[in-house]
Automatic annotation (TrEMBL):
It comes from Avena sativa (Oat). This is Uncharacterized protein.
Length: 240
């Protein structure tokens, strides 16, 4: 092909690429100007390609249920552990701590499910209204309220079971307290690291952030209840 014609072809391809058109450049040169075989031109990838074409993970699609699951697991673990530790500050009875933890598990799971469903359904309605207003086709990435509610409730229950099973059946008060704290520490670090891994973030940073937040919540809960009992001189029976 004549060099001048070839330059015009490539210039036109570059112009069309800037304008957003899908361009494929196919070099049909049989030989160069000096008579030597011409090198084939590199194929130009059409615009609009995604990382999915190369097998990359679609983290945005995963975020729909991952946020609800991570939030539910951490909330269940921290809430029930804080509740059990707080109760131990005023009552060392094993049955009292077990019942309080079980009540926290059931109530928290139901609360998380309802909260996620209402919250995500509101987001869903907003996005659907925006799509209709812009006269666009319905997208596949619309949030699923049911999936978010189920993921949150199930994750909350799983997280709550960690401290409940670790300390709910230990008779000695100090050993029970230590068991709940140890199991909660491992659970917080594990859930945080898992969330970072599934979300493509740093596992160490995510685990450390969740661990510090959980320990702070437990310390505040224990301290508030301990101070409440001391200030108001409330006596809670440990019999039974």
């Amino acid at each position: 092909m004549d060099p001048h014609i070839s330059s015009h072809v490539h210039a036109d391809a570059a112009r069309r690429t800037k304008e957003g058109d899908d361009v494929f450049v196919v070099d049909v040169d049989v030989e160069a100007a000096d008579g030597s075989p011409a090198k084939p031109a590199e194929a130009v990838r059409p615009s609009g390609g995604t990382d999915d074409d190369n097998g990359a993970v679609d983290y945005m699609a995963r975020a729909q249920w991952l946020r609800a699951a991570v939030l539910g697991a951490n909330d269940g673990l921290v809430s029930v552990a804080s509740l059990m530790i707080g109760v131990s500050a005023v009552n060392e009875n094993r049955k009292t701590m077990l019942v309080s933890g079980l009540a926290g598990l059931v109530a928290g799971a139901c609360s998380m499910a309802i909260g996620e469903f209402v919250s995500v359904y509101t987001q869903y309605d907003i996005e659907v209204s925006q799509i209709k207003q812009e006269h666009k086709e319905k997208k596949d990435l619309l949030p699923s309220p049911t999936r978010a509610a189920l993921a949150s409730a199930l994750a909350f229950a799983v997280g709550a079971l960690v401290p409940l099973l670790a300390g709910g059946f230990v008779s000695q008060p100090l050993a029970r307290f230590c068991a709940v704290c140890a199991a909660t520490t491992v659970g917080l670090a594990g859930f945080g690291a898992s969330g970072g891994y599934l979300g493509g973030a740093s596992m160490a940073r995510s685990g450390f952030r969740v661990l510090v937040g959980g320990w702070l919540a437990m310390a505040v809960t224990y301290g508030v209840l301990w101070m409440f009992v001391k200030v108001f001189r409330i006596h809670v029976s440990s019999s039974g």
